[in-house]
Amino acid sequence: MSGSIASYDQLVRQVEALKKENSHLRRELEDNSNHLSKLENETSDMKEVLKHLQGKLEQEARVMVSSGQTEVLDQLKALQMDITSLYNLKFAPEVMSTGRGAEESPPAPASHRDGPGELGRATFRMLEELDRER
């Protein structure tokens, strides 16, 4: 009988330990869920800002091309490539730390010879792919 009491006490301790672990995991899941929601909201806000900025840049590029100011347009293309590279540098470690491999990382920035519309579409495609991954 004392063996069954010891076995019962051991089971009670295991149940209590499992309850504590379950509680801890629930808190962690809730924290992760809240963090993910925050990131989704921030990403959505950033996408809207980027769409707006991209529209303005494309409009300015059309005006510059029609007025023959191609050197400024080339500078804008280079700037966009720099921004895309900076974005990839900033977020690549986070992508790798979530278990995603390099084959799932955002595509490389559009080449320098693409037109201003192509740069905008490439940026938008990258954001859409990030959204799908999320």
Automatic annotation (TrEMBL):
Q: Which gene encodes it?
A: Apc2_0
Pfam family, any one:
APC_N_CC
Name recorded for this polypeptide: APCL protein
- Where does the Adenomatous polyposis coli N-terminal dimerisation domain start and stop, copy by copy? 6-57
A Gene Ontology biological process in which this protein takes part is: pattern specification process
Molecular function GO terms recorded? beta-catenin binding; gamma-catenin binding; microtubule binding
Name one cellular component (GO) term.
cytoplasmic microtubule
Classification lineage: Eukaryota, Metazoa, Chordata, Craniata, Vertebrata
- UniProt signal peptide: none
Region Disordered: what ranges? 24-43, 97-121
